[in-house]
Design a protein that fits this description.
This protein is α+β, with helices and mostly antiparallel strands and about 400 residues long. The chain is built from 13 helices and 8 strands.
Length: about 400
Amino acid sequence: MPEDRRRPRYSRTSAEAKRMLALGESGHYEFKSALNSVTPALFATLANWVALDPSRKVAHLLVGVKEQTDEATGLVRGVPSGLPRGLDNAVDVIQNKAKETYPIPVDIFVVEEGTKEVLPFVRVEIRPTMPPHYDAEGRRQTRQGRSTRALTDDELLRIYLDREAGSFAARFRQTSDELQAAVGTVGTQVDQIAQAINVSIAQPILELTVTARRAASAADAAADSATAAEEASSSAASAASSAESTADLVGFDVRKVEGLVNDLYDVVEDLRENAPEFLAARVVTLRRDVWWKFTVDTWERTSDQAQRLARRLNELLSGEIALDDARNTWELRVWKHLLSDREAQRGQRGTLKWWEAVMKTVNEYSEHPTYQAPELPDLRAELQADLDRFMEDETSETNRFRKLLEP
């Protein structure tokens, strides 16, 4: 059931709960009549059972329910037995026990069933978060029919690999969606991007596959080593450690591939920012910013000079924007430089005189688009006058110029 439709409370036993009671205890459904039978190990066991099979989505624990065998048919079904200390206490205990599972508490959703009936009970939906889960004693277990057993070494490995693969898949899907959105605006760069994806991702994915196969072989070897019954416990622990270590290796490869994807996304972002359509859109945004800042600076000025200046600036900023990469890149730099100079003005605002100078500068550049030449102070004269003093003085022309050389 979708999360936004789940109900946490039913005054009468829900149809879903009635179905579970009728089917009886199994891998999917666990019945506990006593609240003290609900332990962190139980939550970890049920969550691991779900994690072992991709087709499984959730396990159900019914607390305050006992088993009853039909003498005529021999079938076992669940019968509500109630919660002596009440529903609120039961819910608190269940939530606290779930928090004592590791490495991250399992995900639970608690449903109070039959709250207005004589024998209410609790239904708990259990889902894994970061399997394999275990309790404070480190027990990694799963369900087998109606009984509980330790996870085998190959099951542990499979869970670790599935966990890493799932985490990578989620992150990759997000990055992939962002890449697709970016590629849509890049146009002629698509072939270059496709080639980069082939070179940067195909080979790491192949290496990841080889590592996974190596991990599976390691798990098989670990399983074969458990030959004596008295060594089964220590062998299982060793196998689990081997599986976890191998999964960590796979996880490292996954993170390496993810890093390559993110690097590629950065490349696409750079390409997109320099695409003709995107440059034009940036010019539109910056022109709006300029008009807003002019309004903030001059809205109180009602003189003829202010009115003329507003009309001229409006006419300039409302002009068409051609899909000309060089010109739009130039305009972005000019406006950014001028707005940066505005921040250095008193009160971080431009006077009418300052805005007049801005208009003059932009009009001159519009007629003859050029990049501003660098200022080259007479550093030789300063150093010849007193080398040591000017090299140590952070405010000297020499040191200010050196800072401009830093990337």
